[in-house]
Amino acid sequence: MLRRAVLVPLSIGLLLLAAPRPAGADTPGYLLGHPWEKPILDGIAEQDRELKRMQPQALAGKYQRLAARRAETNETVRRYYLLGRAHGKNFESLRAQANQARAERQKADLLKQADGAHGQALQAYREVLALAPKCYFAYHDLGVLELQRARPDVGRAVQYLQHSAALNPRYPSPLRKLALVHQERREFAKVAEILYRLIPLAPNDVVARVTLAGALAELGQLDASRRILDQLLAVDPENIGYLAQKADLDFRGGRVDEAQQQFRTLSEKSPTNLLPLQGYMRCLDWKRKNKKRVTAEEYLWAMQRMLRLERRPDVRNKLKEQIKSIKQQQAEQTEVKRDGKLPGPEDLARILKGPQEEGRYQVIAFLNAVNQPPPKLLLDAVLSRLSAKAEPSARVRALAIEIAGRQLGWGWMPIARLVAAQDRDPKVRLAGIDAIARMADQGANARAGAVLVLGRFLDDSDRSVAAAARLGLLELGNGRLRLEENASDAAHRQAFAKWWAGPQGEDLQIEALRRYADIKDPFVEDVLASYARADSFFVRQAAHEAFTSVAELIATPEGRRWYQGKRGSGFAAFERWIQALPKPAEGRLTRENAAAVEPQIVKWLDARPR
Question: Are 400 and 364 in contact, with CB atoms under 8 Å apart?
Fold first, then answer.
């Protein structure tokens, strides 16, 4: 169903796109004694400091002027090398700007400038080699630049990198790049050969060890791969990348069920990491191909999470179509039909109210998969299964939440939130979270409601529920965490908390708070209460303004009818309280009056009618 994925850490491939950096993090133990080596390394350190305060284009201009000055040979080598590196940095910056440009004309102009910087970098390195033919740094960087072309000349890049390695067999950087090139070509025997040369030179290079473990696994040397991973896990036992590769070894060794469970656990620990999801899908595809039992729920679990992470419109549309197709297959596979005929609504409603759990599940699964909305009689029967008191089966309650959310739309979101918050079974809470996240596609009001509601489940006691809430918010925020693919669970949670508290997360919350009163959520004050006490002043400010919007809404005849209908006899007392809601000076919370107003808000929230 999805393209087979090679289970090696995704961050490894990104090293091919790094700007020329021959020294990297290595100690200079590989130096051969050439007079230009140490000056070049010192110049790289200085240039990196300059990049923190100068734009790459200005940096390239500075080194262009330096290279034009007369100097003795070794100093000229140094200057031209740093000039090539500066042009490489400028090329990288221009290409990144082109990728972000919206206007086609601007994009084309930036790409043209990037091509020019790329050509200038190549020319500078050739000047270096004309003066110092044994400059292995320059050959390494020329190889990287060839790989960075719009249409890479991989053969020429390999020649440059091999020549760099031949000039200095102790220099690890060209070996790293060569291993990655052969990995991209799936030439795993060559990858292993190169890495066995590299690791003694850089014993602390964990990326090299992980890549070697992946290459050995592809070559069928599972025990050797496992030994490497065990060594890495002894130092970093929570590393998602290492653990995912160990799960892949179980998969390759025929323990598919164990591998599938491990991949799912890892995905819940680090939900923005695609690697465990890809491994999980490999297990499902293998089972289906080998006629083993695979449930639709297993596929849907993975695809819905992939959809939350995916930003490319074409891939998102493909995933949506696949999800829709699976749900339609679910409808065909249910046992609701008898002799090819579907029972009438009354019979289906009777089954829903009957004692047979499987019958109730089959009816709701069928209704959830068909395209047309069910009759009111059936929908009411489904909604009657939402509470644990009325429906003892958690899987039936979970399906009931899903169908209600899909059929009733975003107006049903308050009910989904209430059910998800109160149900003790994590499967039901997870279904509620997924339903709320999907409702966000149904308009700006739904999106606002989903943002604020999902934010209350970020610290759910169940890891899968909390992960689903985080993924839903990332999707609504149209962004992803910038994490290494092998990030630990702790690193992932820390990065998400930073994102949620940063400008992107704050903007998302503020936008949602400004629209939340329009949802007419009968539990609106419970949601706003948590944001009125947020760490961010700007979020608190937006929450206080949202309270004012609710008060203004209730003051209208329409709002009064809505709230009285929801609150019943308690409305009059609540109305008095909300009208007495403390208001900041000049109608807006400021940093100066926040200290005085916020205790009143908290007191009001704690004392309001229930």
Answer: yes
Mind listing the pLDDT tens digit for each residue in 378-391?
888 888 888 788 88
The percent of the chain in helix, strand and coil, each rounded to the nearest 5, is 75, 0, 25
Distance CA 426, CA 170 (A): 54
How much is the pLDDT for 464?
83
Taking residue 255's Cβ as centre, other Cβ atoms within 10 Å add up to: 14
Nearest to 142 by CA among 165, 159, 167: 159
Report yes or no: 286 and 251 within 8 Å, Cβ to Cβ.
yes
3-class SS of residue 341:
strand
Q: Do residues 131 and 73 lie in contact, with contact meaning Cβ atoms separated by under 8 Å?
A: yes
The helix/strand/coil state of 338 is strand
Nearest to 233 by CA among 265, 210, 256: 210
Q: Distance between CA atoms of 14 and 11, rounded to whole angstroms?
A: 5
Own/partner contacts of 94-101, CB < 8 Å, gap of 24 or more, are: 94/56, 94/57
Residue 66 CA to residue 62 CA, distance in Å, equals 6
Question: Residue 232: which H helix or E strand, with range?
Answer: helix 222-235
User: Is 396:357 a contact under the CB 8 Å cutoff?
Assistant: yes
CA 108 to chain centre: 29
Which residue intervals of 384-443 are DSSP H helices?
Answer: 394-408, 413-422, 426-439
Residues 207 and 519: their CA atoms lie apart, in Å, by 49
Evaluate the CA torsion angle 385, 389, 392, 398 in order and state its sign.
Answer: positive
Count of all residues that appear for the chain in the document: 610
Diameter of the chain measured on Cα atoms: 96
Alpha helices in 25-153 (DSSP H): 37-51, 56-68, 73-100, 104-131, 136-147
User: Which is it for the CA torsion 255, 261, 262, 267, positive or negative?
Assistant: positive
Better-predicted residue by pLDDT, 353 or 260: 260
Q: Are 168 and 34 in contact (CB under 8 A)?
A: no
Ramachandran angles phi, psi of 485, nearest 5°: -65, -20
Name 37's Cβ contacts closer than 8 Å, sequence gap at least 6. Answer: 28, 31, 137
d(CA 293, CA 287): 7
Structure tokens at 596: 């005085």
d(CA 468, CA 568): 34
Nearest alpha-carbon partner for 460 in 447, 478, 473: 473
Q: What is the mean pLDDT of residues 407-411?
A: 66
Phi and psi for 338 in degrees, rounded to 5? Answer: -125, 120
Do 17 and 53 meet the contact criterion of CB atoms below 8 Å apart? no
Q: Residue 40's Cα: distance from chain center in Å?
A: 38
Query: What are the tens digits of pLDDT across the range 137-193?
Result: 999 999 999 998 888 889 999 999 999 999 999 999 999 999 999 999 999 999 999
Tell me the C-alpha distance between 416 and 260, whole Å: 30
Determine the Cα–Cα distance for residues 504 and 464; give it in Å rounded to an integer. 24
Closest CA relative to residue 385, chosen from 364, 410, 406:
364
Count Cβ atoms below 10 Å from residue 134 Cβ, excluding itself.
13
